[in-house]
Predict the 3D structure of the following.
Amino acid sequence: MVLVAAFALAYLLRFDFRLPPEHLERALVQLPFVVLLQFFIVVFSGIYQFVWRYIGLAEVQTFIKGAFYSSVPLLMLRLGLPERHELWRVPLSVTLLDVLLAFGGLLTLRVVRRALYERYERNRRSARSGTSRRRPVLLVGAGRA
């Protein structure tokens, strides 16, 4: 859903929310190809395997690589296909906007999921502890944990 919404929003932004009918046809033809390509990149780059509640800055690099790997074939098609295949040539601005919106949206979903999970856990712990007194703790040598 995020990938489809990103592609649609990229086209709408490209034409200031007044999509001409001829470009609507192009967008509908290009949509399945672009979304399948991006979904393939998401699955095979490892983004899909991240545990949502543990997403952090270390995983952002994988999202950036996924965005790059999904934009390269689209840019190659745009620049390499002749004019007679105009239907399959995604505009450069749409490609760049779509990649930013799609992978930014996927990352945002996971960050929001993590924030909600952490808030839930914090509220659950505070409700469970009741009036018990909290003591500060210093962990030495915990490494990445």
Notes: The longest helix spans residues 92-129.
